[in-house]
Amino acid sequence: MDQLRDCERRINDGDIPGAITVALEALSSDSSPVTYCDFYDLLSPATDRMEIEAPKRLKIAILSTYTFDAMAGYLYFECVRIGLLPKFYIAGFGQYVQEIIGQTSGLYQFQPDLLIIAAHAEAMLGPVLESPFRIEVPKKQKIVEESAQKFSDLIDHFCRQSSGSALVHNLMTPAISPYGILENKIEGSPGDCVRLYNKIVSSRLSDNSQVHILDFDSWAGYFGKSRVRNPKMWYMAKIYLADDFMAFLARVYMRYIKPLKSLNKKCLVLDLDNTLWGGILGEDGAHGIDLDTGPPGNAYRDFQFFIKSLKDRGLILAINSRNNFEEAMSVIRTHPYMILKEDDFSSVKINWNDKVKNLEQISNELNIGLDSMIYLDDNPAERLLVRQFLPEILTVDLPHDASLYRVTLEEMTDWDSLALTEEDRRRPQLYLSERRRDDLKRSSGSMEKFLASLEMEVEIKPADDFSLPRLAQLTQRTNQFNLTTRRYNEKQLEQMRRSPLYRLYAVGAKDRFGDNGLIGAAIVFKQGAAWRIDTFLLSCRVIGRQIETVMLAKIARDARVGGATCLEGEYLPTAKNNQVQNFYAGLGFKQNPDGLWIGDISRLQTAYPAFIGVHEE
Amino acid sequence: MLDNLLAKVLHLDPGDVTDETSMESVQRWDSVRHLMLVSELEKQFKITLATREAVKMRNIFLIKKALQEHGIEL
C-alpha cells in the first residue's frame, strides 16, 4: 500500500523512472494479481501519455475468445523490466472477428506493432469437443478444416491490413477427454481434432514471415495443463487462464518481443570451473573435475550439449575464466567428455586478470555490445562485481545445483530469434574467422597489405527471395554502420522490391578465411535525375574493409546508366551510428541547406578498389 | 487478516469497514476486483469457495458469514 502511494506521488511529481523502480520493487516482493493490476492501472496511463523514443516503443493489441484483460498487467511489467514502455489495446472477448474484418476498427486505428491472438479450443471447435461421440468422423474433420481455414483467412486479412506482426496461439489439446484412455486410439478423438486444426493453421501460415505461431499446447504442457485453467474464474467471468499461468505466458511472449525489438542477446560468455565442469581445475586436476556420463559430471555434460546447440543456432560463445591458460586449454582440447571444443569459442580469455576487464576485451574483440551479452558464472562474488561494473551485461544467477543449469538456460527468454537464417547458423564460424583475421592484421603491418592479403570477393546484386529475409534482419539489427537506421520487415521490403521506383541491393563478402555471407544492404529510391539513398548499411563484422566504397561505386554506376545526375544521401544520427557521420563528406558529397548530402555523379569515384574482386549483377 | 486483505484488494481502511460495506457503496469493488477478492480469500484462508457462494458475497457481512461457514473464526 505504501509503495503504491509512493509510486503515485512520483508520477504526480513527473518522476516516471522513479515510479517504475518503485513498482518493480513492489512486484518482486508481492506478485499477486491485485498488485499487478494496481500498479498497471497507476503507471500505464502515465507512460501512455509520454513521448517515447522508437527503440522503447511497442504497441501491443490483444484479441481473444475469452477474458484476457489481466494479461496487459503481466506483459506490461515484463516489458518495462527490460526498458520498453508498451501501450496496449485490448478488445472485449469474442470481438476478434469484427476487429480484424472492420476497416476502421479500434485495432487498425491503434496501429499495433504486435497483435496477440488468443483463441481457445472450445470457441473454435464447439460441437466437436462438446458432443464428440455424436458426430461422425468425416463430419468432424470437415468442421475442423472449415474452422481452421476461416481462422487462417482472418490472420491473412490482418496481415494485408497491417504491417504489424501477429503472434497466434494454437489450441490446447485436452489432457482428459470423454475418450479417456482411448483418446489416442480412436480416430477423430477431441485431441485428434485439435491437432488437425493446429496442423492446418500452421501449414497455412508458416510461410508468412509476419506471423508467428505460439505453441500454446506445448507451453501449457510444460507449465502443467491441470494448472493452466482456473475453472471458477471461467464460469464466473469467462477468464480462461489461471493467474499464475498468465504470468508465465507473459514471459513466453518475451521470447518474441525481445527479437522483435532487437533486444535478444548475441553472445554467451562462460566461466569454466563449476560452470562448464564441476570442481576447480587448479585444485582437482584434469582427472579430478566432474564431467562425465554419470553423476555428478553428467549434468555439466548435458549443459554443454545445450550450449553447443545454442551456438549451432547462432549464438556466439566466449570464455572468461581464471585459470592457467595451457592447463584449461588442454582440458578443452583433450577431455573425452568435453562437448564444447576450442573452435566453438569465438573469443577465449583464460588468465588471472580481472573478469570485468576480460569481458570488456571480449566485447571489443568481437565488436559485440555489452548489452548483447549474457554472462554465466557460478561464483556469486564475481557476478556481483560484473553487475556493478558492467550493468549492461545480463549476468545470470546460476543455481547452486548444477542439475538445474540446463533448465536455467532453457527458461531464459533472451536467446530466441524470430527466424533462423543460414547467416545465423554460420555466425559463430564467422566470428572465429574474424579472430584469425585479427591475427593476420597484427602480423601484416600496414592496412593496405592487410586488406590485400585478405583476398576479398564482394558480390553485389538485386535483392531476391533468398536474400530478402536476411536484408530485413540487417535493417532491424544493424546499428553502427547504418546511415539512416530505418527498420523494415520482409513485407515492406517485398513491396519496395516490386516497385519500379526502388532498387534494393544485397551485398555478400568472402575472403581467404571464409564466407561472411550477406553483410550489406542498400535501398535506393529512384526519383528522376536524383537517386535518393534511403538505406545504406554494413554489418559491423566487415567494417573497415572498403566494402562500402564498392557499394557506393556500384550505386553511382547504376544511377549513371539510369540517367541520374546526382545521388542524395542522408545521415540520421542515433546514439550508435556516429562512426558514419562523415561518410558522405568523405566521399565528396556536399551538404545542402536541408542537411541532405548531394553527390554529383560525374565527380564520384566509380572505380572499385584494386584489392577487392567484385561480382555484380 | 481480513482487514489486511480488504485493504489490499479494495483499498479499504479498516476503520471505514462495516458489515454494510458493499459492492454498491465501494467504487473500486467492481466485478473484476470481486474476482480478485474471491481468489485472495481462498489463498489467504486456504479454503475453496463454491462459485454459488462467491457470487453472493456482495457485502462484508456476507463475506464474514461465508468464511464462518468454512469454519474460520474472525
Features:
heterodimer, A: 617 residues, alpha/beta, Rossmann fold, eight-stranded mixed beta sheet, five-stranded parallel beta sheet, 25 helices, 18 strands, B: 74 residues, mainly alpha, Non-ribosomal Peptide Synthetase Peptidyl Carrier Protein, Chain A, 4 helices, 0% strand, globular
Describe, in plain words, how this protein is organized in 3D.
Chain A is α/β, with parallel strands linked by helices. Chain A has four domains: 1-50, no CATH class; 55-260, Rossmann fold, CATH 3.40.50.1110; 267-410, 3-Layer(aba) Sandwich (Rossmann fold), CATH 3.40.50; 454-616, Aminopeptidase, CATH 3.40.630. In chain A, 45% of the residues lie in helices and 18% in strands. Chain A has 25 helices and 18 strands. In chain A, β16 and β17 (597-600) form a beta hairpin. Chain A is globular. The N and C termini of chain A lie far apart (67 Å). The mean pLDDT of chain A is 94. Chain B contains four helices and no strands. With 74 residues, chain B is mainly alpha-helical. Chain B is globular and about 25 Å long. Chain B has one domain (2-69): Orthogonal Bundle (Non-ribosomal Peptide Synthetase Peptidyl Carrier Protein, Chain A), CATH 1.10.1200.10. The N and C termini of chain B lie close together (9 Å). The chains are: A alpha/beta (617), B mainly alpha (74). Chain A binds chain B through residues 1, 32-35, 37, 69, 232-233, 235-237, 239, 243, and chain B through 7-9, 11, 31-32, 35-36, 38-40, 49, 51, 54-55.
User: Could you state the oligomeric state of the chains shown?
Assistant: heterodimer
CATH class of the largest domain in chain A: Alpha Beta
- Looking across the biggest beta sheet of chain A, what order are the strands in? 16-17-15-14-13-12-11-18
- Which CATH class of chain B is shown? Mainly Alpha
Q: How much helix, percentage-wise, in residues of chain B?
A: 40-55%
- Name of the CATH homologous superfamily of the largest domain in chain A: SGNH hydrolase
Roughly how many Å apart are the termini of chain A? Answer: 67 Å
> Per DSSP, what share of the residues of chain B sits in E-state strands of 2 or more residues?
under 5%
* CATH hierarchy: architecture of the largest domain in chain A: 3-Layer(aba) Sandwich
Briefly note the CATH topology name of the largest domain in chain A: Rossmann fold
Gross CATH architecture of chain B: Orthogonal Bundle
Mean pLDDT of chain A: 94
- SS-based structural class of chain A? alpha/beta
Most extensive interface: A-B, 14 and 15 residues
How many structural domains in the coordinates of chain B? 1
**Largest sheet: number of strands, sense, barrel closure of chain A:** 8 strands, mixed
How many runs of DSSP E, i.e. beta strands of chain A? 18
Q: What is the alpha-carbon Rg of chain A in Å?
A: 27 Å
Shape of chain B: globular
